[in-house]
Design goal:
single chain; 77 residues; alpha+beta; two-stranded antiparallel sheet; 2 strands; 29% helix; globular
């Protein structure tokens, strides 16, 4: 299935790395499937289930990304 919606995040590379490491979609079983770097830029691929409102662009990924950035060390996988 082609990508229906993309979310772009920019900022401190350590914060972004934490966000994508702990990201879990709150609406489906979607999660980060790959992470690549290009110098200081980080690129993450997040795959969502068909019908997910985040994939469709109906709901933003921002709340799930913010939650992922704040996961305490004791709760990380």
């Amino acid at each position: 299935m082609p990508i229906a919606h993309s979310t772009f995040v920019a900022g401190d590379k350590h914060l972004i790395a934490r966000m994508v490491s702990n990201y879990q979609c709150g609406h489906c079983t979607g999660e980060v499937t790959h992470l690549a770097t290009n110098g200081n830029d980080l690129h993450a691929g997040i795959e969502h289930d068909d019908g997910c409102p985040v994939l469709a662009g109906t709901l933003p990924a921002a709340p799930d990304l913010a939650r992922a950035a704040r996961v305490p060390d004791t709760f990380r996988r």
